[in-house]
Amino acid sequence: MKSRQKFRKGVILFSFFLFSAVFYYLSPVVIIRSTLNGVVNGSFIMFLLMFISALVLGRAYCGWACPGAGGQEAIFLARDKKVTKGDYIKWIIWIPWISSIVLLAISRGGYDKIDFFYETKYGFSIGDVSALIAYLCVLLFLIVLPAFIFGRRSFCHHLCWMAPFMILGRKIRNSFNWASLQLKAASNKCKHCHTCTQNCPMSLPVEMMVKANKMENTECILCGTCIDGCESNVIRFAFLNGAQQRH
Ligand code: SF4
Ligand code: SF4
Questions:
Q1: Residues 6+ apart with CB under 8 A from 113
Q2: Using a 6 Å cutoff on CB, does residue 2 contact ligand 1?
């Protein structure tokens, strides 16, 4: 494994070990309670930052920082099934969820204050038994079991309420065509060995993307696994706008 992938896996595993401490900052439920009380909480700010980061970095957060990523990629050792269907499911969850937050905020007349540490104890998420039970339920039912039942990064494909913020940020970036972190392929160098498709943690058809010279995919998390696994150095990271991507 190339040293960049060792570093990435180390970072997401470390992030996963911190998950119990930080999960209120990523919670889809605490943001509803804080909205009812007119408070802009930690998860509100984190979701906003994810959206902003995606305008330039796409879904790099998912590949390089998300606490949910480390646990899921560790499960690859035991269960390495590809996931190629069901990406739409997360939108069925996200649209009613975000709509209800917007409606709640409007109905109470907006937000009154900002409290990044809302409902945390000294900044830590698990401050009582109910928070511990919530954490264990998220870990077991949303991260671990789907990865075992459905396969690689099932949570990211099917359930994640954070991914749509970044997918939207990425779509906005694509419409404005400004420079951002992307994958670039030299398709003429491809030896069609299938390694990139085989290794992609998001189960994307990378070799076909290379062949079509179309590396943009909303499910790509810019993890660089395809880059580091390609012996022919076909794929690379590049900071490009849409026009440069196509040439
Ligand atoms: S790993 Fe490289 S050479 Fe092999 S199919 Fe993918 S892009 Fe082509
Ligand atoms: S296409 Fe490459 S960078 Fe994107 S998720 Fe797959 S392996 Fe990672």
A1: 38, 39, 40
A2: no
- Cα(94) to ligand 2 centroid in Å equals 23
- According to DSSP, residue 26 is labeled G
Residues in Cβ contact with 99 at an 8 Å cutoff, skipping those fewer than 6 apart: none
Q: Whose CA is nearest to atom 2 of ligand 2?
A: 226
Q: Is the C-beta atom of 228 inside 6 A of ligand 1?
A: no
CA pair distance 70, 89, nearest whole angstrom? 22
Backbone conformation region of residue 224, classed left if phi is above 0, alpha if psi is from -120 to 50, else beta: left
Domains of the chain: which residue ranges? 3-170, 177-246
Tens of pLDDT along 33-44?
999 999 999 999
- What are 79-132's pLDDT values in tens digits? 999 999 999 999 999 999 999 999 999 999 999 999 999 999 999 999 899 999
Q: Is 156 in the pocket of ligand 2 (CB under 6 A)?
A: no
Among all ligands shown, which has an atom nearest to the Cα of 186?
1
Atom of ligand 1 nearest to the CA of 226: 1
Tell me, which fold does domain 177-246 have in CATH?
A: Alpha-Beta Plaits (3.30.70)
Q: Which residues lie closer than 8 Å to 78 by C-beta, 6 or more apart?
A: 148
